[in-house]
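Box S2. Input/output pair 1.
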Amino acid sequence: MVGLNKIMVIGNIGTDPELRYTPNGSPVCSYRIAASRTYTGSDGEKKQDTEWFTVVAWNQLAEQCNQYLAKGRRAYVEGRLHSHQWDGNDGQVRHRNEIVASRVLFLDRVNPDSGSMPDESIRATPDQNMGDLPVDALDPDDLPF
């Protein structure tokens, strides 16, 4: 049976991207993105909820995210949701969900003085995106974070 695991988020970058390299030299970039929604509560007051997501991009997409994104910028991120579970130093089970990015659109316009941004979206192809490998193929000890 075929399944689908896809997540799309539009929001503001909450941390400057951090570019690292695996021991075999593959670039990996991680950053946080916040997506907010506004709604009217039962009391008639406007309220806002914000969800935070950790985004991980690999290879060429990682380098481009590191180059063009910064805290406060706006972006569209598309990818798959990946869950991690581990035992913390205190013995507690820890959980983390992250988006393994396959496509990133840079939604802000850039001032001509600060450099240029690509006009089109940046998309990882299957051979560029380690997210297409089976989970067993990625050893958590190889990840730089």
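Box S3. Input/output pair 2.
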Amino acid sequence: MKLIIAVIQPEELPEIKEELLKRKIYKFTVTNAKGQGVEYPLQEVYRGVAHEIKLLNKVRLEIAVNDEFVDAVIESITTVAKKDGDKGRGKIFVLPIDECIRIRSGETGTKAIG
């Protein structure tokens, strides 16, 4: 069992979601995040005052899967997010899961993730 965490650009979420669903990966969590990568800080003017935005909007996608789905998840994300010559596409982290428990039924392990 693995936990895949991807930090991606917000505009890529709809396409990544479609790719995941095509590969029969239906369960995932999405949260808004702020972050700083290699991108240069943006300048924004609010009420006539210039502000430097150092933390940019990102999306954090968390997907817990059984081992046989890890490659499909990574392919779903990279198919959409990987663009030649484009910087700052995000990161994917793959972490082991020691245990998973479905609260409703008490199932554990690989049965609980599916």
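Caption for Box S3: The domain at 2-113 is CATH 3.30.70.120 (Alpha-Beta Plaits). Residues 19 and 76 are 5 Å apart (CA to CA).
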